[in-house]
Amino acid sequence: MSDAVPATSTRLASQTLAMPGEISDLRTRTLRGGFAKLCGQAAGFVLRLGFMVVLARLLDPRDFGLVAMVTVVTGIYGMFTSLGLSSATVQKVHLAGDEISTLFWINMLIGVLLAILCLATAPVLAAFYHEPRLLWVTVTMAMGFLINAAGVQHQALLQRHLRYVTVTAIDGLSQLASIVVGIGLALGGFGYWALVGAMLTSSGVATAGAWLTVRWLPGRPRWNAGIASMLHFGGTITLNSLVSYASYNLEKVLLGRFWGADALGIYGRAFQLISVPTEYLNSAIGGVAFSALSRLQDDPARLRNYFLKGYALAVSMTLPTTIFCGLFADELILVLFGPNWMKAAAIFRLLAPTILIFGMINPLAWLLFSIGLQVRSLKIALAIAPIVVTAYMIGLPYGPAGVASAYSAAMSLWLIPHIIWCLHGTVISPRDLLRVIFRPAVAGCVAGLCAFAIQRYFGSSSGALVRLSLGAGVMFATYILVLLFALGQRDFYLDLLRGLKTSPAATGSR
Questions:
Q1: Which residues are paired to 16 by β-bridges?
Q2: Do the domain assignments include residue 417?
Q3: Of the residues 55, 57, 176, 348, which has the maximum number of CB atoms within 10 A of its CB?
Q4: pLDDT value of position 26
Q5: Distance of alpha carbon 155 from alpha carbon 191, whole angstroms
């Protein structure tokens, strides 16, 4: 797929920007965009994992805990940076140039306000945690809100035009730059400032890359009725994200306050590692799926077909990953982080079920947002919040392991009600999802048993790296063979590959 899009002027004043490309070539554009994102996310996964491994050996758990004390709060502020207006830009079928300019300046205003709020929060955090070093960490991170706000609409335009090759390149470059800066600072003895520097570098490179690749400069803001509707859409999504973020991160505040930076550092490393598969997969498939489904919101039959195929792909990747992480938690932590982090292994194993749970529920948000049911998504988030908060409170007296156990249990119990509520009244039924999940689940169980047998056979007689390598090879080879051949999914994946090879010109694209 060519990554070019119809030329846009450097100053879009009033022309309408409809969704680019013909609907007839949407399948090819989506598959190629998704493939580019998957490749980019796979490379990003390796880079990020390597970065985590290196820093785990250069920094102490307390360094990670100190930064986590700040990011758990600034992350809440970050929910407001885009105000959901990037999603509104992607979702709206017809979009005028002056509307984008207005959204840009709204994002910049929000960025300024968030930076000021972050500065005001700095002394409060230092006092709350009884940790004076947090003051300047928080002050420094205030710059990130301005940097991120400047790139929101440029990045949204790349997604709107399905320019995921470009998006992937920018993501990779920003991540590589942050790794270089982070490791350099860590080697220089700057401790926790290495983490802060890496985050700011990533934001700066991503925003600069979006500006350089999108041929658009913001004009004067002009208010119209379309802006109001987009603010409502974006505001609902932002509130949804805020509620979800607060719910899923409150335990870090509690652990930091009552158990200290060391306990939070151990829990935070396990939580971050366990979140990587779901985060990267959702980033790879979710953005492309949301863009494509938004363009099919008036075509229920095709929307259903596209969603189920995307869901099948997401579940088929998260299910074996969940089983593997649960089986080889000790080996993963030992190989990646070293013996000083072995306390994180038990927490990592307890959190493993959440990989599959979020792999199953995150795609439902793509569906709800694309068809304009963002209010339902918000109601669901408000229902989840008291459930997970209650779980944290139950597990908190037992430390990080207790919190991890209670969190996984609560999310497991919530899974079925979540699916039923999301799908009610849509073109997708729970039975549709069950049919999609069945084959990967069977293949995953068979592969997991084979990997477990390998693990038991070798036991402690071989090194952790050997057990991990053999287990991964056996499990994923078995999973692929069972899924593709024994369960008849080969044609599904071959069809996806054929779609990647299809010329856009052959499908009517300009």
A1: 96
A2: yes
A3: 348
A4: 61
A5: 32
For the record, the structure tokens of 181 come out as 């800066």
461 lies in some domain: no
Distance between CA atoms of residues 270 and 368, nearest Å = 30
Q: Which of 365, 351, 410 is nearest to 386 (CA)?
A: 410
Which one, of 101, 197, 113, lies nearest residue 152 by Cα?
101
Smallest CA-to-CA distance from 369 within 419, 433, 422, 314 is with 422
Per-residue pLDDT tens over the stretch 110-162 = 899 999 999 998 999 888 888 888 899 899 989 989 998 888 888 888 877 77
**Residue 22 region, left (φ>0) first, then alpha (ψ -120 to 50), else beta?**
beta
Unique residue bearing structure tokens 């785990």: 56
For residue 469, being part of any structural domain is answered with no
- Give the integer Cα–Cα distance in Å for 503 and 31: 12
The reported pTM is 0.67
Q: Is the pLDDT of residue 21 over 60?
A: no
Calculate the CA 110 to chain-centre distance: 22
Supply the pLDDT for residue 24. 47
> Cβ distance 313 to 359 under 8 Å?
no
Nearest to 178 by CA among 54, 66, 286: 54
Any domain includes 331? yes
Cβ contact 238:82 at 8 Å:
yes
Tens of pLDDT along 200-243?
999 999 999 999 988 788 888 777 767 777 777 777 877 887 78
d(CA 146, CA 77): 12
In three-state form (DSSP H/G/I as H, E/B as E, the rest C), the secondary structure along 264-306 is HHHHHHHHHHHHHHHHHHHHHHHHHHHHHHHHCCCCHHHHHHH
Torsions phi, psi of 217, nearest 5?
-120, 135
pLDDT of residue 234: 77
Per-chain mean pLDDT for the chain: 82
Q: Which residues pair with residue 95 across a beta bridge?
A: 17
Count of structural domains within the chain: 1
**Pick the residue with more confidence: 19 or 283?**
283
Determine the structural domain holding residue 177 and report its residue range: 22-428
Residue type, 273: L
